[in-house]
Specification:
The chain is α+β, with helices and mostly antiparallel strands. The protein has eleven helices and 17 strands.
Amino acid sequence: ARTAFIICALVLIVSGVGLSLFATLGITRRLKHLVKAGKKFERGDLDIDVTIDSNDETGALAHTFNQLVRRLRHVETVTIATAAEDFSMQVQALGENDRLAKSFNQMSHSLKQLATERREQDWMKSGLAELHYKMRSEFELIPLAQLVMTWLANYLKVQVGVFYLAEGERLKLVTSYAYKKRNNSDNEFRFGEGLIGQAALEQQSILYSQVPDDQQQLLTINAGMGESQPGDVIVLPVIHEDKVEAVLALGVNRRFSDIELELIDKVSHSIAISIHMARTQQQLVQLLEESKQQSEELQTQQEELKAANEELEEHTEMLAKSEATLRNKSEELQQLNTELEERTEELERKTAETEEKNRDIELAKQAVEIQARDLSRASQYKSEFLANMSHELRTPLNSLLILSQSLSHNRQGNLTEEQQEDAKVIYQGGKALLGLINDILDLSKVEAGKLDIHFEQMAIDTLIDNLRSQFSPIAADKGIELVLEKESGLPANIFSDLLRVEQVMRNLLSNGLKFTHQGSVRLKVHKPEPAVRFNNPALKPGQVIAFAVVDTGIGMAPEKQQSVFEAFQQGDGSISRVYGGTGLGLTISREMVKLLGGEIQLQSEEGQGSTFTLYLPLDGQSVQTLPAGEQGKPHVPFEQLAASTSPARMNGQQSAIAAPAQPATPVQKTAAPTAAKPVNPASLAQPADDRDTLAPGDKSVLI
């Protein structure tokens, strides 16, 4: 039994020691958490929260610590808001003895007052600086008064205001803001009359929060839907060196704040100085003008006196000379008679020469008229010949095209591949020849002024759709991107000739696709840029539409850009060109565009592509056009076409291609033209007959 008692006692002792050790470890662990949190708190880290699930003293200590941290967090939030001048937040007091909250809130209130005062001072200083800057560049009284009135109304949010300038003992209304005059008596006040005159007389500002009954009509706020009396009215005399320069009256539908009244008082000094300077400036200008006028009058008087003295001297000299002249008059009269006889003979001789010259001029005029008639007949014969030639050539040529195309298809299957290829060559050559004939005929019509232009409403979208359907397959075959686009905001229609415009655009797009190996060809319909300058005076800015064909092809050098518009010329004019074509397309297009009242401009750089831009008027019929052959230079006559296609022999010498016609040099008028020799029309140079000198293989042109 004793052993059992000892064992039980030992067990109880061990259990007590274990329980004590366990309790000690738990307390130690919780204290370590508190110590760790305290160290973070010591470093200023408030993002901590001690979690201890215990109801003993350590749990109460942890709860108190957490409450302290939350309190400091709240103080931190309020401090940040206060630093950002947000004074709406305050530290919540936990009791009457919470001196921290009371002190902090009192500090926030003081800072709020300081910030408000600082903002008001900044607002006032900014206003003073702004008004001073604006007034610095104005030296005339009325514009200066208007500037001050408008600035005060906008800066102070004034509903109504008037500005009176002092002229002696009177104050005259010169400008106002939202003010409706009742009668003419409001335009002028004497010193001492009404609030305006009283303020000027006393040289003191008058602030009325309740306007007297006898002054109810001084300022009235008129909003269009009714009238009301202002809440506050301040009448401010503008004084410079004890002298009233002006009087301002401002009315608001509220009460003026202290800072606004302080601003009004301070700006009155700057306004007074500016008005005084403007008055002084005007007086100086007036004095300067008067001085200048007096100086001019004195100078005029001096000049008149000088002229009178010179005139007296001249009269004296004339009297002296007249005596000598009278002595020599008889000799001079005799000499004059001799000279008159000689001049009469000279005049008779010149009259005879003039009559002879007039006869020569009449003969020359007749010769010129004969040449003009001959040229007119030649042009008519040329046009008739080209029309007949085109008809006679196209009839068999069309048959040739039909037959060669039929043979190339080999529907009966009795031709070899080589024969089919020969038929295709014949067909292609015939088509090219037919195109050349059509181009020459079109160019002849343009030169003769017989190309018909039919102006009508032309839909831009229709033109774009037609061009897209024609050239999309060609672009797809060459692997070139074709883009046709229209800028927004353009009219749907223009007044022009759809057939001729489409013919020109076909030529420009065809050239773009021909000379472009890779990249894109783009048609953009748009309004011309303001910087574009037109050579055609009929094109008016704002009444023009542009059709720009932009390609990424071979381009051309600047020295070749003018020649591409000449007949039978191309951008690659070398003998080894590989692009083909007649070189008439751009020539015909240019002349057609002139008939349409527009023009074509070219921008290109060798190796970088080209941009051909067609400019047309929105209403082409309103543009006065001339015959195609007279609209612009250079003009390509038929003789140049013949010389370019078939260089014939002229008296055994090499023929030269005619250069483009240049504007004639104005003829200098002379006092006495020399006599012209009679011109015999039969003696005019005629082309030599070279039929006997033609050799086998020489090319010839039928004329």
